Amino acid sequence: MAIGSGIFLIAVGAILAFALNESVDAIDLGMVGWILMAAGALGIIISLIVSGQRRNTTHTQVTEGYVDHHQVRDEPHAEGGPGTTPRA
């Protein structure tokens, strides 16, 4: 949005500085146009610097989760071993 505002200021300033042949007694419209063009260019430069700094940041995402390290295996026991019932 700042880049769009800067372009708008440059366009209005260029119209005032170069396209108008009107004159106002108290205001120099050519100088107002140059000031608006400078403000627009400065706004564009500042917005590009700020967006460049925003792009170089790093973000860390922390996720919490439960990890069960105990593994349960269902292995049949040998006949006659503990935990088995004798067969008839």
Q: What features would you describe in this structure?
A:
The protein has 88 residues and is mainly α. The chain contains 2 helices and no strands. It has a domain at 2-47. Helix content is 51%, strand content 0%. The mean pLDDT is 82.
What Rg do the Cα atoms give?
37 Å
Distance between the termini: 86 Å
- What is the 3D form? rod-shaped
Written as H for each helix and E for each strand, in order along the chain, the element string is HH
Count helical runs: 2
User: What is the number of beta strands?
Assistant: 0
Main sheet? none
Poorly predicted parts: none
Please tell me the overall pLDDT. 82
Helical percentage: 40-55%
What class would the helix/strand composition place it in?
mainly alpha
- Strand percentage lies at under 5%
List strands and helices in order, with pairings.
Elements: H1 2-19, H2 29-55
Summary of the model, kept short:
With 88 residues, this protein is an all-alpha fold. Helices cover 51% and strands 0% of the residues.
Keywords:
single chain; 88 residues; mainly alpha
